[in-house]
Amino acid sequence: MSAIINIFRIPELRSKVLFTLGMLILYRFGIFVTIPGVDPVAVNFARPEGQSFLDVVNIFSGGALFQLSVFSLGIMPYISASIIMNLLTVVIPPLARLQREGEEGRKKINQYTRYGTIVLCSVQAYFILLNAIQTTDRRGQPLVSEDITPFWFFTIGILTITTGTILLMWIGEQITERGIGNGVSLIIFAGIIAQLPAMLWKMTRDGNVDFFIIIILLIVFVILIALTVVLSTGVRKVPLQYGKKMQGRRMVQARSQSIPFKLNSANVMPIIFASSLLLFPQTVLGVLGQDSSGQNWYGWQIMSEWLNPFAPTWYKQIPYYTIYTALIIFFAYFYTAIQINPQELAENLKKYGGFVPGIRPGSHTREYIEFVLNRITLPGAIFLAGLALAPYFLINMLNLQENQNIQGLAYTFGGTSLLIIVGVGLDTLKQVESQLLMRNYEGFMKKGRIKGRS
């Protein structure tokens, strides 16, 4: 409590915290503003039963997708455009040169990212509106008013959803500049956390709460959070030594340093890439598995069960878990290779007179860095896979398929969402604590300090 009180004693830090909270409240208000032409009452009765891949998009949008809100896509198109742009800078030389030009080059790349965000928003918004205009709620009422023509509904809807995402992008940039921490991450963090009270209220209202299951879920969540903190803060420090240098008239030995390589350099990106790659065959097999009479074709049904984490028997779920784990491990190595270039790192060390003790500069240093990265990426990738599959294991082991509320709680606050919550929480607390320590205040913990993820 003393640390929280100290936050509001510092005028600059207090204004940053209040500004961040104000922007997040504005974002939460926008969640409940529906697209023009959509009936809000019908939308409340049209939410699909059970869990599907749409729940992933709904989680990251803060529940706005199933509300058909102006923020239906959330900030995810901007993140997707950023990922695509980062990949293009690796394979397209002109973009790579532009990235090395400093601040002006980064501004250009950021501008291209915004253009890509608009394109992705327009395409995704079209399919959202197409589904909305063809859907009725459980009472048989259409979601879209019959008074509006399809042309104007699509025109206004695409413009509204795209503008909503651009507004969220602006809010994220304002939080980054005038508030606390990374604004984009805080928007996703707030969207996930804000769904917890509604889920708990729905469970209490329905009266089908199994307190034994809830206690087990809480214990598992605490263990997963602790392991996620270890994964997010764990680093492998490679010691460095620099040659002697002149200090006045004396030759002195330079201070020893180290390079911290994160245990999870790719963060949550492998899970997102693997989920996206599995989404396409799941959708195709779901369509091909039905004939004109609505019956399942035997061959397609078997293939569908291979990609179904909720298959009727446990041995039919093994192919999905195996494929998903293999994809996560592959993308973990792939994204780490994009972020860290051992060749460039070894050349920079050699250029500035640095070396790893016991390792010769140049190609030997590059091989040693590659060896270290390969060794630490594998356990991090395996833990990422286990974290992503944890909700499915919980639902299957505790037989939660029949209880939609508890199933949704386990699905929403496990796996990818848990990694985002813990990571963003650690970053935000670290930034606030650094502000407190800079002004000679106590941090959040009297013993020790909050370790950052970098």
Short note summarizing the structure:
The protein has 454 residues and is mainly alpha-helical.
Overall shape: it is globular
Level-1 CATH class name of the largest domain? Mainly Alpha
Oligomeric status: single chain
Q: How are the strands of the biggest sheet laid out side by side?
A: 4-1-5
Proportion of beta-strand residues: 5-15%
**Which second-level CATH architecture of the largest domain applies?**
Orthogonal Bundle
Number of domains: 2
SSE string: HHHHHHHHHHHEEEEHHHHEHHH
Share of helical residues: 55-70%
Residue-averaged pLDDT: 76
Radius of gyration: 25 Å
CATH fold field value of the largest domain: Preprotein translocase SecY subunit
Give the CA-CA distance, first to last residue: 27 Å
- Summed up, the helix count is 18
The CATH homologous superfamily of the largest domain is termed: SecY subunit domain
